[in-house]
Amino acid sequence: VSRQLEEEIRRGFAGLEDPLAGLLDVLESSGDWKGKGHSLGYCIITELQLWIKENPAVQQSGMKLKKLQARVLRILAQCPANLLDPLISIYQLHTADRNYLLGHISHLYHKGDYKEAAILSIKLKLQPDQDVEKMCTPLLLQDKTNLVEDYVGEYPELQSKLLQILDTWCEPGFNIRDITRQYQGLSRYKPDKFNRRTLSKLVFRLLDRFNVDPALCPNVINQRHLRTLNYLFYKRFVEKTMTQENWADHIQSTVGENRLLQGHLMQLLISYCDLSTAARWAQRCNLPKEMLPCGVADELQKLQIQERVEEAAKAESYDESKKKDYYQLPIPRANIHFLQTWEETLQCWEKVLQPGQVVGIDMEWRPSFGMVGKPRVSLLQIALKDEVFLLDLPRLLEQTETESEKAKLPHFIQKLYSDAAITKLGYGMSGDLKSLTATWSALKDTDKQAQGVVDLLKVDKQVDVLSPEQSYEDGGFRQPEKGLSLLVQHVLRKPLNKTEQLSNWEKRPLREEQILYAASDAYCLLEIYEKLCKDPASFGLSSDLTESLVGKPSIKPRAKKQLNKQEVPSPSGQQCAGSRTETSCAPAPISPKEFSVVCDNMLQGLGRYLRCLGVDVRMLENEDDHRKAAEIARQEGRVILTSGLPYQTLQSQVAEGRCFSVNCSEKAKEQALQVLKHFNVQVSLADIFSRCQ
């Protein structure tokens, strides 16, 4: 049928004196072609386009063509997108008088057909002769940002103009309603989509897409920096998870010499700290007296240089007492090598690229805090059994002059990742490789070629671990461990000290704390891997760890090992299937008064719930060692309730059936039901709250 239709259409064209005028007669007298998809009109138009190429003599010119162009322009505004290009080509609209075309677009615009005017402008490439603000504003109000991006897509000058306009709308004193008021009757107007926050996001997306200098948008950049300042104060003074050194580095780089940001910094310092700290920062930023808030100027006069130096030294001194609480590098400081020249890297390559070698790999980059662009890797850490190499990538890149020199490091990295004889250990390796690719485009296919890779993030998802609970140290709150630090805590018994994680890794020289942190991040991977390989069963892993985990980083992680809903872990570590009979599995029923337990410190919620049901409960404190539960159980004849790794240790210290592993991912109520069912504890109404005051 399709072939017959094409032949019929072609015979029709051949029989017309003027096929171009004939097509317009058909389109003007019928509405069929206005629908989306391959309508009859679409078939006729596309077939005519092909027929004209075979019969160029039918093309018109001069006054006759101008009349045809005037007719087709009236039709174009109603055209579906798939007909625009064929009609523009057939009627040679690219040769039409430019002013005439602009006048037609203006007519559409004033009729309120903003979308149609923009699409036709793009097709006819009229943007350089139009007012970008006038054309794009109604589209933004209608939430047609994709069309706006297409409108300026091929014109860098218009991209810059648009970004400057959007940035002006984000000025603190600017009233966006002044813009929206001009378009009160606009159809499909979405005022909720048109606000300073949305505009800010759009600006950053366009800056990134068009690779425009962010300096063109000072208002949006300042607002992002203001949010960064607020975030840094939250991390330092509310969460208390950022060291003084890191915090000060980021504050300095964020504020720079910007007076607006410096003024905001003063207000935050007064709110979170004191006048003395604000005064020190005022001196550091060299703020003029007229900018200083009340009281800061007076405090600034009182400060003496020596006092400031002593205060800074006191604040920046490394707290030795906390060392014992965190993972420590087991190799001497002299075995950590900071490499900044190509000659120095040669010894690294020779040692790393050895068959059978096992290496821990990590990377560091300066936190972006939501700014434009991908992070650039500043430090590449490679750990071997006896030493760690820290490669200063920015410095090494600076030294490359020829193309062959530029290829040296990417070649080494590709060789390392593609060599199946070298085991590479990482944590979240796919994310690291993406950042490395953003630093060197030559490394874009490294993840696809990688062999012999063990991503411990994927291992982490399979390891049976404790639930991260809040812990208290010296009476103060410490954030729960997460990520690699949590895995290190579970496997090596101490967490990583992550206070240097948000360091400014581009600043040189690196501080000693940064060097030790970077080396630890890579080296701990070796120790984790060694321990998991020696005793995988203790961590809920398959016996042949190497065979099941060494592969490409693109392999999807297996789901965490979970108990079947029909199974519960028995005190001996074996599983009792839910299908077996109660008589063969369950002990004789007892009342809550007869049931005495000691709850490990990750199950305090369960302990409180059981106590409400009348169970005799003792709970370990946060700072107690898990082994204390075994002592209490033996002395007082209690059953131990615990979870994860401690279960492996505690069950061997008490009689069989006197240690029970609880699913830590469930809520206290579900945990309690699991315990009561397993030990066949029968709760009556009189038992509830019987132990509560």
From TrEMBL:
Residue ranges, compositional bias (Polar residues): 565-584
GO molecular function: 3'-5' exonuclease activity; nucleic acid binding
SMART domains given in the database record: 35EXOc
UniProt domain 3'-5' exonuclease: residue ranges: 336-537
SUPFAM superfamilies: Ribonuclease H-like
Keywords: Exonuclease, Hydrolase, Nuclease
InterPro entries in the record: 3'-5'_exonuclease_dom, Exonuclease_MUT-7-like, Mut-7_DEDDy_dom, Mut7-C_RNAse_dom, RNaseH-like_sf, RNaseH_sf
A Pfam family matched in the record: DNA_pol_A_exo1
GO biological process, one term: nucleobase-containing compound metabolic process
Disordered, as annotated region: 558-585
PANTHER family noted in UniProt: 3'-5' EXONUCLEASE DOMAIN-CONTAINING PROTEIN, EXONUCLEASE MUT-7 HOMOLOG
Entry protein name: MUT7 Exonuclease
Primary gene name: Exd3_0
